Amino acid sequence: MKFNLGSLNKQKKLREMLIYCFLETTAWWLIISRFTGANPLSSLTTRTVSLMTFSLISAFLIAFIMDTNFSSNLILPIGIIGLIPIILDIEKLTFPIFGLLLLLIIGLFASCIPQLQLQNYFGLLTISLLVVAVVPITIYYGQYHYFPNALFTSFIAFWFLTAFFLEPYFTKKTQSISITSIVLLGATVVAIFFLSHIFLAFVSVILLLVSWYAKPLLLKSHWWLIIFGILQIIISFAL
């Protein structure tokens, strides 16, 4: 019996992208739910549906860009599709929110243009910040029409965590022992312990350390982004 390794690898990539898409979207909305103590999905308005649709497509786009090594011709079409529900509901979302969401898509697309040279440490930190902040900010602003500065503090742990997990895609360093990986790991661990729920902080750190140790295997087996999504949800509950 012959196994088509190429087909098997594509299936693993698709599995990783779809699961991460669900986990990332859940984490984005959970951050706001935990911060406010309210369910942002309690009232299903057209604005909520538009933001949820954008969240799902954006999360898929992030995983798609990473798993295709920033080089697929489908990146721009997927980004445009993600903006369609926002454009159709732009009157209810307001122009500033549309501009912020557009910034995420532009940032992701720009990271794929070799001439811009964003596949480096600057690009890593910039894209990680956009991935962490844009959707939660728009969800909160869309619900309450203002944005509290205190929410930025909760983004710090997620920013370092995102940079840690996206680092191998931007730097092409898949080994666990590298200066960048260790620095981001240390920064993430410190930021996590500033969260309010100590037990979940410990659980997050243990899973993070195991992920760091098994980094080459998780990347090769396409579990890396899935672990990333799971960790975000755990840390969301620690807020």
TrEMBL record:
Signal peptide: none annotated. It comes from the Bacteria. The chain crosses the membrane at residues 17-36, 48-66, 73-90, 96-114, 121-141, 147-170, 182-209, 221-238. This is Uncharacterized protein. It comes from Secundilactobacillus malefermentans. Keywords: Membrane, Transmembrane, Transmembrane helix.
